[in-house]
Amino acid sequence: MKITNIKVDRVKVPLTEPFRISLGVITHAESAVVTIETDEGLVGYGEGAPGVFVSGENLPGTAASIELMTRDLIGVDPTDLEKVYWIMDKATAHAHCAKTAIDIACHDLLGKRAGLPVYKLLGGLSNSMETDVTIPINPPEYMAQKAKERVAQGFDVLKVKMGVDEASDLARMKAIREAAGPDVKIRVDANQAWTAKEALNMIAKLDEYDLELVEQPVKADDLEGLAQVTRASRVPIMSDESCFTAKDALKLIRGRCVDIVNIKLMKCGGLREAQKINAICEAAGVSVMLGCMAEETNIGITAAASLGAALKNITRADLDATFSLADLPFQGGVGREVGKLLTLPEEPGFGFKGLKA
Ligand code: MG
After folding, report:
1. Distances from the Cα of 20 to the Cαs of 191, 230, 294, 328, in angstroms?
2. Could you tell me the CA-to-CA distances from 251 to 2, 146, 261, 268 in Å, in that order?
3. Which of 134, 137, 268, 329 has the smallest set of CB atoms within 10 Å of its CB?
4. In this predicted structure, what is the pLDDT of residue 214?
């Protein structure tokens, strides 16, 4: 099988309401949807959804990088994944979202060619994954109301965005815990908002609300601070912005900087690199959560859920981006029905059908 054409469609979908975290606010999901055509008539789909606050990448850059890599990928067998990666890495350094788009489409083709759903090719532990749902930053009463709605929809894990100021963050958590009740797990994501000392102070003050874990308390490059928080905190600490690739994961593990690692396909360059990160973590006894960018459609979510379902060291998922989309531009893969269980299609590949006309 040979790649004959790679097409990029820029997709922009409004969110049902603005999504605010400590780093900024987004109102639309913007993504580069890739279609890879082959000489055998099989077609693979992928996407690169740059989370500008997290990765610093944007849509024009992602689309341009895909076009740059396309030049060298025409004529290559898309199921030769190591070769595809080698070619992409030679064409451009970094550009993780662009590489992820190609990587997802190649895995889709691999599954279609093999006649197997991708979750089976990746390990096949299970065909589904349970996700949390994120409560973005808003006034406390509004976040409490949202928490109540999400619990009524069947979610039993909430991920609460924080990092505004101490008083309002504590008011947020108090309102949310009261609204959600004692049985719901609550994880907190500060998106780098705190220093190590501030983080430890906040974690102590949040103790009465029974947190499951705290995500990325300090700046992405402050690995010493991250290690300091991890050593002193009773609550498990998870990296997000501190870990993009397998090399980052190795640094975090060597420095005993984290208890848990959040892998996002858009940060690392796709399913292939994500498996390397997970292998490093598993060998070190560190469990993994699979996260997503708020900009992703069901293409990225389906790919990530396939990996999460397949591997036992991936014990948590934060794959909720499609719940905030006003419309789903893409057909196939996991649906947009709001609920904690993401069930993967049994069709070959990811079950992708293509963009709506
Ligand atoms: Mg995060």
Report:
1. 11, 26, 10, 21
2. 37, 37, 12, 15
3. 329
4. 98
> Catalytic pick from 99, 112, 159, 161?
161
| Residue 103 annotated to the active site | no
Residue 56: the pLDDT is: 87
Q: How far is the CA of 52 from the centre of ligand 1 (A)?
A: 13
C-alpha 258/C-alpha 242 separation (Å) is 10
Which one from 47, 108, 240, 318 is the annotated catalytic residue? 240
Tens of pLDDT along 304-346? 999 999 999 999 999 999 999 999 889 999 987 899 999 999 9
Domain positions in the chain are: 3-115, 120-355
Q: 120-355: which CATH topology?
A: TIM Barrel (3.20.20)
Low-confidence ranges of the chain (pLDDT < 50): none
Question: CATH second-level architecture of 3-115?
Answer: 2-Layer Sandwich (3.30)
Catalytic site residue from 189, 222, 248, 320: 189
User: Is 215 an active-site residue?
Assistant: yes
Give residue 331 CA to ligand 1 midpoint distance, Å. Answer: 27
> How far from 51 is each of 25, 265, 326, CA to CA, in Å?
11, 11, 18
* Residue 189 annotated to the active site: yes
- Verify whether residue 205 is a known catalytic residue: no
Note the pTM of the prediction, 2 decimals: 0.97
| Catalytic position from the list 215, 248, 296, 318 | 215
Question: 240 an active-site residue?
Answer: yes
Q: Whole-angstrom Cα distance, residue 33 to residue 102?
A: 10
